[in-house]
Amino acid sequence: MKVFILGAGCSKHCGYPLGPEMKEDLEHFGQSLDPQTSPRLRKAVTDTTELMGGAVDTIDTLVQKLYDRQLDSPIGVENADVQTKAIVRHRRAQTASLAISAAFLAKEKRARELGFSRYRNLLYQLFPGATSNWFAINRSACPHVLTFNYDQAFEIAFLDRFRITGYSLYGQGVLNSGLNVTGIAFEPNAFSFLKLHGSVGMWVADFPGDPMYFQDEPDNKDPANIRDSLFFVDSPNNHDESELRRDPLLFFPSQRQHILSQETGFLFRKFAQAVWNRATELISNATEIHVIGYSFSGIDRGPILGMLSQAQNCQRLVIQSPDAEEICNRLKLERPGLRNLIESALFTF
After folding, report:
1. Going from the N-terminus, what domains does the chain have, and what CATH number goes with each?
2. Does the pLDDT at position 292 exceed 90?
3. Are strands 288-292 and 316-320 parallel, antiparallel or unpaired?
4. What is the DSSP string of 125-142?
5. CB-based contacts of 346: which residues, under 8 Å, 6+ apart?
6. Which among 74, 68, 66 has a CA at the least distance from the CA of 91?
7. How does strand 288-292 pair with strand 2-6?
8. What's the pLDDT at 43?
9. 211 and 205 in contact (C-beta within 8 Å)?
10. From the CB of residue 80, how many other CB atoms can be counted at a distance below 10 Å?
């Protein structure tokens, strides 16, 4: 069984920024928003980029610093009580996820214009010889795909390739990503496309007893339609003016420990746990793993290496990246148990 792991380098050709480019990209996006229709979104983006300052260039690092209490002074809670500090840190992380969601949704029209030929080629590699009828495919024999990316470029290419009607995109009958109309579940013996950090287009809302999950399939969204009303309560009468309709279903590497420790503060905790458990299972059973466009240099480096160390049946671990040789040499030194499996390949994605 093959497993493909995709990093940010895979979506670069679709117009999505790499991690270190995120701050500048968000600044440009914020400036493009109409102050008449999107004042709250503009504020969310500005608050996020200003908090990043000159020393933080990725959202992952920003959230890590928030939860490590390194930004208590900039967010004004240095002298606040413990509960207030926790609430404000969480809200600022939530604001960052909102900024990313809006910015990436605004890019989808441009992604279509640029094309997604490399994702299309990957789909032919995953499903060779398949017709446009998704339901004619033997999904139990297909490789699995895990991605760290928040964007929906893979999904856009997928919907361009296959006819899907009457089924939820992320549900068990299609991408098998764990997000079903009836709750969180996977078809155990079928192809899975797992978003290890959640995704734009996925949402969660608080509900008495259990969170409610939602999904919006990718669409040819016009950036002009990215406005406050898509994200916030339209009429804030008797509500906080910043109240969200629903939270973006994004979770960051630095939140992993909190999620795994069974803390209930995160609405997305059960979904994140289910996705990571499924990913660990797939990697453990994989005979061949291809890591494409991922540098092993982020905050999630430790967890993914921990997963790879459990790949007891793996015979090949192929690294595809412009710096593949350097990454392979580093991994061989750090993870001697994987040394005989690791090989580099040209970055052809």
Report:
1. 2-15+115-345 (3.40.50)
2. yes
3. parallel
4. HHSTT--SBGGGS-GGGS
5. 320, 324
6. 66
7. parallel
8. 94
9. yes
10. 14
- Is 90 exceeded by the pLDDT of residue 213? no
Residue 33 has φ and ψ, to the nearest 5°, of -75, 140
pLDDT band at residue 254 under the 50/70/90 scheme: confident
Q: Is 41 exposed, middle or buried (0-12, 13-18, 19+ CB in 10 A)?
A: buried
Q: What angle do CA 249, 223, 199 make, to 5 degrees?
A: 15
Percent of the chain with pLDDT over 90: 50
Number of alpha carbons in the 13 Å side-chain half-sphere of residue 1: 20
pLDDT score, position 155: 94
- What CA–CA distance (Å, rounded) separates 144 from 326? 26
For 59-115, the pLDDT digits (tens) are: 889 999 998 999 999 999 988 999 999 889 989 999 999 999 999 999 998 888 888
CA atoms 287, 293, 297, 299: torsion sign: negative
Pair 246, 214: CB distance under 8 Å: yes
User: Rounded to whole angstroms, how far apart are CA atoms 226 and 230?
Assistant: 7
Nearest to 174 by CA among 122, 218, 128, 134: 134
CA atoms of 217 and 114, how far apart (whole Å): 19
